[in-house]
Amino acid sequence: MIADGVEDEEKWLSAGIAGLQQNAFYMHRALDSNNLKDALKYSAQMLSELRTSRLSPHKYYELYMRAFDELRKLELFFKEETSRGCSIVELYELVQHAGNILPRLYLLCTVGSVYIKSKEAPANDVLKDLVEMCRGIQHPLRGLFLRSYLSQVSRDKLPDIGSEYEGDADTVMDSVEFVLQNFTEMNKLWVRMQHQGPAREKEKREKERSELRDLVGKNLHVLSQIEGVDLEMYKEIVLPRVLEQVVNCKDELAQYYLMDCIIQVFPDEYHLQTLETLLNACPQLQPSVDVKTVLARLMERLSNYAASGAEVLPEFFQVEAFAKLNNAIGKVIEAQENMPIDGVVTLYASLLTFTLQVHPDRLDYIDQILGACVKKVSGKEKLDDRQATKQIVALLSAPLEKYKDIDTALKLSNYPRVMEYLNARTNKEMANVIIQNIMKNKTRISTAEKVDALFELIKGLIRDLDEDLHDELDEEDFKEEQNSVARLIQMLHSDDPEEMSKIIHTVRKHILTGGRTRLPFTVPPLIFSSLKLVRRLEGQDESVSGNEASTTPKKIFQIVTQIIESLSSIPVPELALGLYLQCAEAANDCDLEPVAYEFFTQAYILYEEEITDSKAQVTCIHLIIGTLQRMHIFGVENRDALTHKATGYSAKLLKKPDQCRAVYACSHLFWLDEHDRIRDGERVLLCLKRALRIANAVQQMANATRGSGGSVVLFIEILNKYLYFYEKGVSQITVESILDLIELIRSEMNGDNAPSDPAADAFLASTLRYIQFQKDKGGAVGERYELIKV
What does the protein in this record do (predicted)? Predict the structure, then answer.
């Protein structure tokens, strides 16, 4: 019995190593003096240390490796003895007189190796004798290591094609028979370990057996290295014999490991040609065996083989690999009724990967796999099992990665059905994968029908699913998700205006279900997509009636208005105002004055009723002024009404510096170079004078509150506006007014109470350099600037 105490085990190992080293020392002395009798005596005593039953496999292995190293030296001695005239046959007989069977068999294997190499007897006879003799050790641990030693010393002496040991009496078949027999006996010993000892130590024995598995698996590796094992021999002899042993041992650990070994060590083309035989063994394995991993690895190897070159694909078609694998998976799932759902999905994910590699053109196969997966998960609640959902994401991602085209995935009727079984979190994850795939591959989705199907697929990002009520998402992650949706909306495009209009309607239908947190992200890109369409439709004859004019700028603007109004339930008036102004500019480009005026009206209403924050008011008034400046469609009456409102808003801002800047910005509303009818110098001057009065008020307030003058930056900014309009030829802006302003700035900067302001100094110096630059440049503008003597 293997002792439980670690300390006792260490003590026994130390005693075993000490005994082994002591006898090895005497053996070396005998070898050095060419004393065969003593060499055999001490080597047998040395090997007797391997008879212990007190060590765990791990510790026994340490002892075995020390003995193995000594046996290699003994083997060299035997070779030298034969070269000195000692008969190998007599030596083979002599070692069999060792007292204990275990040392005797180790010595026999060592001499047997030399015997085969001497070629004094057919290798087949010696190998057969050795493998039969090893039956004498039936203790599982000692027997496994003995047979492992036999496999080790004989592997380079097996009769094989092109081998020096191949001959009339020795064939490849003999080698195969020897390895198979050794494998069979080793597997029996390995399995028997499980049934020795009390039931309470079963888990410990499982762990120990797992440590020994490579000793058994090495036999299969040796088989795979025999050159003479061609496809025919593998198909008719090797695989059936190995599978027979695997199935009959009825041991979970052995079956799983050996099936995996078969898949890993033998060539891919052999697996393909013997696929049916290999797959038929799977349902016969114990129910507790992890067959899904075995099959998944098999399909992975076959997929890689298929990817190695197009020339191998006909082999897959010839053996009907897909049908066989699909059928085998069905049988395995049927045989293992309690297979967890992640196991089922893993199998189908592996089959899908295989199919995409071998039959990329067969979408019916892909859909069939997805349908089978749906059938297995149907009737269940949303999948919360982490491993199962991970496998489903892998299953759904595979077609996207292969085809690099969501369009292909949309053709698969079962694709959305699989997504239905994902929980909210995984649904979002999968939706993100889909969007990233579209953006990475720049996929063009150009029909409303496809857009509708796509948005159904990514609905986890578009709207709140039920589970989301309890699913808190990090704010940064949420923003990233919604920005991905926004980028997706921008990518939707059709060259046909009619179809593009349908796409806009479809997207609108989906995003309006998104709730107040999503709309600020998804509405703007839809508005801009709509405005792109409007600009494509510029100049369309509005008089055309009926179906021919079903998509017109006016109709698009009606939809856009409704979409922006959907933001009214959310406190984002600045966003809505900005969108109204964008629409007004688009209406201006389409020469639709009433529409543009209405958009401005809505923007003004929002400004007056909703925007109360002073900083937001400053931003919005500058947006209004900037947009209004670019409008050319308005008649005198409408323009005057809008500019009057804008100047009024500017003068009512909370902070005086903000008032000043907004008022002088309004001056641009009354002078546009490209429009002769919008050139009112008087009102330009009026705005600038009002700005100067406000700047003066700022200075006075600074003197009153701080006892020193404020910054003159506002004056310098107004000076720059004076210079701009002077350069544009506004007659009301005179040289005298510019000089007076420069003098005012200098006096303010040089006053007794003036604070030090390097920024203002630099700003004024830069402005004066500009004046000098224009003088130096010459020409008509230069002549005007010559009049400004600074």
Answer: Plays a role in vesicular protein sorting.
Per-residue pLDDT band at 197 (split at 50, 70, 90): low
Quick check: 411 and 455 in contact, CB under 8 A? no
Residue, of 333 and 739, whose pLDDT is higher:
739
pLDDT tens-digit profile of 108-141?
999 999 888 888 888 888 989 999 999 999 999 9
Cα–Cα distance between 462 and 456 in angstroms, integer?
9
Q: Please name the residue that has the structure tokens 């700022």.
A: 698
Q: How far is CA 314 from the centre of its chain?
A: 32
pLDDT of residue 2 exceeding 50:
no
Q: How far apart are the first and last CA of the chain?
A: 110
* pLDDT for position 157: 84
Q: Considering only CA atoms, which of 522, 601, 502, 501 is closest in space to residue 567?
A: 522
326 phi and psi, to 5 degrees? -60, -45
Per the structure block, which two tokens stand in for 605? 């209403």
Looking at every residue in the chain, the average pLDDT score rounds to: 88
Angle between helices 386-403 and 341-358 (to 10 degrees): 10
Q: Is the pLDDT of residue 649 over 60?
A: yes
CA 688 – CA 696 distance, rounded (Å): 12
Phi then psi for 163, rounded to 5 degrees?
A: -80, 150
- Of 716, 745, 690, 659, residue with least CA distance to 724: 716
Q: Crossing angle for the helix pair 341-358 and 291-307, nearest 10 degrees?
A: 10
DSSP designation for 443? -
